[in-house]
Amino acid sequence: MSGDIQVVHIAGARPNFPKAAPVIRALADRGIRQHLVHTGQHYDERMSDVFFRQLGLPEPDQNLAVGSGSHASQTGETMVRLEALFRESRPRLVVVYGDVNSTLAAALVAAKLTIPIAHVEAGLRSFNRSMPEEINRLVTDRLADLLFATSPDALVHLGNEGIAAEKVFFVGNPMIDTLLANLHLFEASAIGRQLNLPDQYAVATLHRPANVDDPGDAAELVKVMHGVADRIQVVVPLHPRGRENLAHAGFFRHPGIRVIDPLGYIEFLSLVRGARAVVTDSGGVQEETTVLGVPCLTLRAETERPVTISHGTNRLVTREELVESVTGLLSAERRTDGWPVPPLWDGRAGERIAEVIARFVGTD
């Protein structure tokens, strides 16, 4: 890594890539010298590399190939490798995205080396500290010098936590920039033919520890998902996390459950666009379904993205409520008059972020 880099971006897991793409593109348009580091937290080709190709991202300048492991080992190994890179390059700004372990690791290393930090997607809170992501969010926001908020509730949280207002910028959601830029490529009929799907199907993405790590929780989840599959075929691009527990609990045995490997960005959102409903415990899917107008049932007790409930298609449900909720969606008329879109989710968040960063690093 050369010593004339102004901005280093840290991407480590699948959700980071669609958030980073519009920011990198907008900074390139301003002539900002950038370096993209892939930590390798997600290392399967379908979980990371395909995103670089489909989103038009440059190949990472560096791949740390950290791989999987416990939260401590993954975060620690990422910190060790990033420290060497940051000491060599001394960038003017490190940009981190979302709430994964790579985000926390980069923020800690940069802070200890007195390198300024920008956090894209700052201020989101579930208020559930049993979620590793919540700890990552809290620490990263406390250390950040520039905090880019995607929704009004995030501004409130940051203010309540005493973050100085001059550090906080309401910019909208860069992940939605990526979605809107690729909307014309999301062909539900094409992915339906490719996977030989019926006209009516649901999509499920399930990987949170609270749903899949404990064998008892996994067994309960399997029971209710089989109840959903009694009513509609469920297509499940299955994350590696929890696969063994779900398999042991009999997840794959229902003929209405169709488990497939993780999909690329365009293929996955094509699948979601054609779905009658989505069942998820993922944060990003709540946002994507909101813009695509697909009913979303989030199998969690809380969400760090409440704007997807107040301005979108999302609803929180318990396991006990899930089958009834899906049944209700299937019996209701599909809404065709659109959904309210959260403020500034207009496809220009990357440009707003780039404007602030350019001023910060001294090019504007």
Look at the structure and give the mean pLDDT.
Answer: 92
Strand fraction: 5-15%
Structural classification: alpha/beta
What is the CA-CA span between the terminal residues? 24 Å
Describe the biggest sheet?
Answer: 7 strands, parallel
What Rg, in angstroms, do the CA atoms define? 20 Å
The strand line-up of the biggest sheet is: 3-2-1-4-5-6-7
Give the helix proportion (percent range): 40-55%
Tally of DSSP helical segments: 16
N-to-C SSE series? EHEHEHEHEHEHEHHEHHEHEHEHEHEHH
Shape, principal axes of CA atoms:
globular
Low-confidence stretches: none
Would you report the number of β strands? 13
Describe the structure.
With 364 residues, the protein is an alpha/beta fold. The chain is 45% helix and 15% strand. The chain has helices spanning 16-29, 49-54, 71-89, 101-112, 132-143, 152-160, 174-181, 188-195, 209-212, 215-229, 243-248, 265-273, 283-292, 307-310, 319-331, 349-361, and strands at residues 7-11, 34-38, 62-63, 93-97, 117-122, 146-149, 168-170, 201-205, 233-237, 257-260, 277-280, 296-298, 314-316. The strands form 2 sheets. Strands 3-2-1-4-5-6-7 form a 7-stranded parallel beta sheet, sandwiched between helices. The protein has a 6-stranded parallel beta sheet with strand order 10-9-8-11-12-13, sandwiched between helices. Strand 2 (34-38), helix 2 and strand 3 (62-63) form a beta-alpha-beta unit. Helix 3 crosses helix 4 (101-112). The protein is globular, with a radius of gyration of 20 Å.
